[in-house]
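Quick one:
INPUT:
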């Protein structure tokens, strides 16, 4: 469940990820998998559209939402429901179709919801000071088609991380007192709730899952390399 409130950064620049409540062991034996995963604001569109197969690209989408949030200091897609979340995504990135996302029309929820047709991406308007290289990386994180979405390994090699300003030396990191040491309470921005329930999924795609359930698939590159696995319930 990747989101900003689950990222822990030390004074020495060491980043740790917390909350592995929805994590799953990547491999055999097969285990039951939950259909409602990832906090709404950071949930990939394939999950919102009730895909029957998903894999590590959903985490890359979450990283893109976190990247954008760090840049503008506010959540990129703060949706109030699954449908509202999709509408916010489509408004900023353009409504997807078969050309940009092969298989889009076959997703369970696509034919059950009428979306406004937003023709083009409008993301640049939100990040006017971000370099073209930086915007390019953000768009790669937020690519609709999971098969075309950038991988974590590819992202680490992206040119954005080599352009100025470069990261400072860890010794120059600022320090702050722990919350327990503060003498007063500070107002905190509302944090989205973790995923729960499944009502929206049942309304949009529940009738389609009776026969084959959800599957957790290997990534594109990993499927080429050998045996994968699928999880069903």
């Amino acid at each position: 469940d990747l989101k900003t409130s689950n990222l822990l950064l030390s004074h020495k620049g060491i980043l740790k990820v917390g909350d592995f409540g929805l994590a799953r062991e990547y491999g055999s034996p097969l285990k039951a998998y939950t259909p409602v995963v990832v906090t709404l604001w950071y949930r990939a569109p394939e999950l919102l559209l009730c895909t029957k197969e998903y894999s590590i690209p959903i985490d890359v989408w979450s990283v893109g939402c976190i990247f954008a949030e760090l840049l503008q200091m506010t959540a990129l897609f703060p949706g109030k429901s699954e449908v509202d979340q999709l509408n916010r995504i489509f408004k900023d990135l353009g409504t997807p179709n078969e050309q940009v996302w092969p298989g889009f029309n076959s997703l369970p929820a696509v034919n059950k919801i009428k979306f406004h047709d937003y023709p083009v991406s409008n993301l640049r308007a939100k990040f006017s000071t971000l370099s073209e290289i930086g915007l390019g990386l953000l768009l790669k994180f937020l690519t609709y088609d999971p098969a075309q979405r950038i991988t974590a390994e590819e992202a680490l090699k992206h040119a954005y991380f080599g352009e100025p300003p470069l990261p400072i030396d860890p010794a120059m990191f600022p320090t702050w007192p722990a919350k327990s040491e503060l003498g007063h309470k500070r107002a905190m921005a509302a944090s989205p709730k973790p995923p729960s329930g499944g009502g929206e999924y049942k309304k949009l795609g529940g009738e389609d899952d009776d026969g084959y359930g959800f599957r957790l698939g290997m990534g594109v590159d990993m499927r080429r390399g050998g045996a994968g696995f699928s999880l069903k319930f």
